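Deliverable D4.2, example record:
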Amino acid sequence: MHNRLLILLLLVSSLSASAQTFLVLEKMGTKKRFEFHPGQTVTVRLYGDKFYTPLVIKGFGDKSIVTESKAYPLQDIYMVKIPDRSPAIRGSGFTLMVAGVLLFAIDGLNQTVVQGSYYKFSPGVAMASGALIGAGAIMYFGFRTKVKLNKWWRLRFAFI
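Output generated by the structure prediction step:
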């Protein structure tokens, strides 16, 4: 019994506690932030490059992101692509835009084919259709996908 207690005590006391480092992209003055942990992919554009480079984070050095091939200093990063927040929001935006167009088309079909009369512009249907298309466009196109690092956006390391 004493041996088990001694082994357990030695095991617990030998474990060292250390903080986990992760990369944070944050907007200054707001609570908007994106976290990148080791093992995740961050897509960046370096100064002087015309293309984006996906980096699989293996670890962090002194002010640099370490990948399998080399280390990239934070000061060499020009832009960062933000991962999609929620595919459901983007999908809902597309659905709303299609619904707005279909509402307008179905109203025209209803007036011409079903009722057998000529098409007459309906301001109420046009307003509802425009509202659906506008709300869908905001949801679909309304978030920024690329961020230039400047005085408002910064890239830094944080610890848990």
